[in-house]
Structure formats: C-alpha cells, structure tokens
Amino acid sequence: MAEMNEPNMEEVTAKLHKEIDAVPEADRVLLLRLVQSYREGVCEEKDTSNELSPAESFRAGWRDMKAGRTYPIDTLWDRVEAS
After folding, report:
1. Residues 62/54, Cβ–Cβ less than 8 Å
2. What is this structure's pTM?
3. What 3-state DSSP class applies to 42?
4. Which residues of 49-59 are buried (b: 16+ CB within 10 A; e: fewer)?
5. Are 23 and 31 in contact (CB under 8 A)?
6. 14 torsion bin: left (phi>0), alpha (psi -120 to 50), beta (else)
7. What is the C-alpha separation between 38 and 15, in angstroms, rounded?
8. CA distance 49 to 54
C-alpha cells in the first residue's frame, strides 16, 4: 500500500489561487458563495455574522436580476460535469 504524505499546504494554497485566478471575474461572486457554503457545511460552529437574512438574500438576487447578472435557463447545466 502506498504511503500517504501530508499535503504541502503552500502548494495547495498556490493551486487554489491559480484556480481562482482562472475563473472569469463575472463568475467570482458565484464562486465566493460556493466556497462560503462549503465552508459553512463542513464547520461545526457556524459564524452567522456574514449570513444574509432571507429578505436580504432575495434583495441581492433581485438586484442581480435587475442589473442583468443572469444566465439563460437553458445554459443552467452547461458547466456541470456528470460523474
């Protein structure tokens, strides 16, 4: 059996930064939300200080829609890879 080595956290961080830099700026808000949701899902203690209320979340989505930051529904699954 192969020995598992501890990951080099500097390499992991550098790879994360490289991946983030490769995301188009228009999609980075969505990436941020994804990362925050992931972090919240794996952390036992939730920090709700940055969490939007349902009303605030709706208003943010409404602002995005009014500003044209939307995607056609037929492209919803375009960038999702099936396993």
Report:
1. no
2. 0.43
3. helix
4. eeeeeeeeeee
5. yes
6. alpha
7. 18
8. 14
Residues 52 and 60 sit within 8 Å (Cβ to Cβ) = yes
Q: In 1-83, where does DSSP find H-type helix?
A: 9-22, 28-42, 54-66
Residues of the chain with pLDDT under 70: 1-4, 44-48, 82-83
d(CA 33, CA 40): 10
Quick one: DSSP state of residue 2? P
Contact 61, 71 (CB under 8 A): no
